[in-house]
Design a protein that fits this description.
heterodimer; A: Glutaredoxin; 7 strands; B: 202 residues; Glutaredoxin; 10 strands; 31% helix; AhpC/TSA family protein (chain A); antioxidant activity (chain A); AhpC/TSA (chain A)
Chain lengths: 156, 202
């Protein structure tokens, strides 16, 4: 019986954590500014993008490996807002994603793609490393080894 | 170790180069000869009466490309008559995504009754010439006495879901401008799309 309670409790805690918040670029900027010395790894993905889904575990690993360091992994979904309840949240629960997950709350692709990085064509997956004024943008997918190498290179 | 770093750097620079290279608006396009789903070879030169072309990099599996399938068919229907036929090119490597194979392209073309060519681009040769980075990715060409000139690069419209009441039809607007003898008011747009599935080199 006690075990049952514990299971229930952990399930409740998990689903409470498995929230996907809407995030505008203004809110993201504010978060980055407030982050001071934190290094942010921002991965742009979508539930419908197979290479994105394939590389998410590497970002989860990066999150797990840096839990005690000033490093934040933000997984920003570009799914349509209408898919939040039907696709994105179920996906996050199913994959048990532990890094913070957001859904980008921006309407105008012309504006937001340019603002995230002028070099970005809009293809996903795409990833941004940011620490204060230092930033590096990648329009590509990563294997575990490639992400690790890029990460080490950024922190050199 | 030093060589390893140099190789790594070369790889990284080669990668970013591959992404920024390609045609810009105003560039002259080199003609190509690619195999269509009916096994016939298609080149721009085949279209004697065309005034220009709507070259669209699209594929079998990308959900964004799928969402635009009917709109691409409609573009071809409307604009072939005006001298701007659609030419679709699949930039993806079937070795990476098996459902992008030539056979699957044939199946899709049959299912959807494609009235436009749907071309295979082995080894991404034409994809790299154009500098396409995603599906769908559109290049509108205008025929001139000197050759085919790129007049627009980007998205079909600003409404991937196809449900917006304030849809801006970039491609239609650009062709309408060109048909009227004007330069397109908007020559480049961006859109979220699927990355191209490049052949694995190692």
């Amino acid at each position: 019986m006690r075990l049952f309670f514990i299971i229930c409790l952990s399930l409740i805690t998990y689903s409470a954590n498995a929230q996907v918040k809407l995030l505008s670029l203004d809110e993201l900027d504010k978060r980055l500014t407030n982050g001071r010395d934190t290094t942010y790894v921002i991965n742009f993905w979508a539930t419908w993008c197979s290479p994105c889904v394939a590389e998410l575990p590497h970002f989860e690993e990066l999150h797990r490996a840096n839990l005690k360091k000033p490093v934040k992994v933000l997984l920003v979904s570009l799914d349509f807002k209408s898919k939040l309840q039907k696709a994105v949240i179920p996906f996050v629960v199913e994959k048990k994603l532990k890094a913070e997950v957001f859904l980008l709350n921006e309407k105008d692709q012309q504006a937001y793609i340019e603002r995230i990085d002028p070099k970005w064509s809009g293809a996903i997956p795409a990833t941004l490393f940011i620490k204060k004024d230092k930033r590096q943008f990648f329009e590509r997918e990563f294997t575990a080894g490639e992400l690790n190498a890029a990460w080490l290179n950024f922190n050199k | 170790m030093k060589t390893l770093i140099v190789i790594g750097l070369l790889l990284i620079s080669g990668y970013s180069f591959a992404q920024t290279a390609g045609y810009q608006v105003g560039d002259m396009v080199k003609d190509f000869a690619l195999k269509n789903v009916d096994h016939k070879t298609v080149s721009l030169a085949n279209y004697r009466n065309a005034k220009g072309f709507v070259v669209i990099f699209t594929c079998n599996t990308c959900p964004v490309a799928q969402a635009y399938q009917d709109r691409i068919a409609e573009l071809n229907q409307t604009y072939t008559a005006k001298g701007y036929p659609v030419i679709a090119i699949n930039p993806n490597d079937a070795g990476v995504v098996p459902n992008e194979s030539f056979e699957k392209m044939q199946t899709l073309a049959k299912q959807k009754n494609f009235t436009f060519p749907y071309l295979l681009d082995p080894d991404h040769v034409v994809t790299k010439q154009f500098g396409a980075t995603r599906t769908p990715h559109v290049f509108i060409l205008q025929k001139t006495p000197k050759g085919n000139v790129v007049e627009y690069i980007g998205a079909i419209d600003n409404d991937p879901e196809g449900e917006s009441s304030s849809q801006i039809t970039y491609v239609k607007n650009a062709i309408n401008d060109l048909s009227a003898g004007k330069k397109p008011a908007v020559v480049s747009t961006k859109a979220v799309g699927c990355s191209i599935k490049w052949k694995k080199t190692s």
